[in-house]
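Hello, quick one for you while I still have it in my head. No rush at all, and the record is pasted right below.
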Amino acid sequence: MDVPLEPSAYTRVLKLASTPSWNEFSQIALIAGAGILLVGLMGFIIGVTMGIIPGV
């Protein structure tokens, strides 16, 4: 993989990039938060199951 060293390659990308709107940001944050909660809930359920049923 060849990484370009000249700054012009990076300025082109920065010119195309834009900051997200508030609606877009809040939607992304909501989806990411839901994913974090889902993974945490699954870990909690597995931990409780391992504590209740010995030998699992």
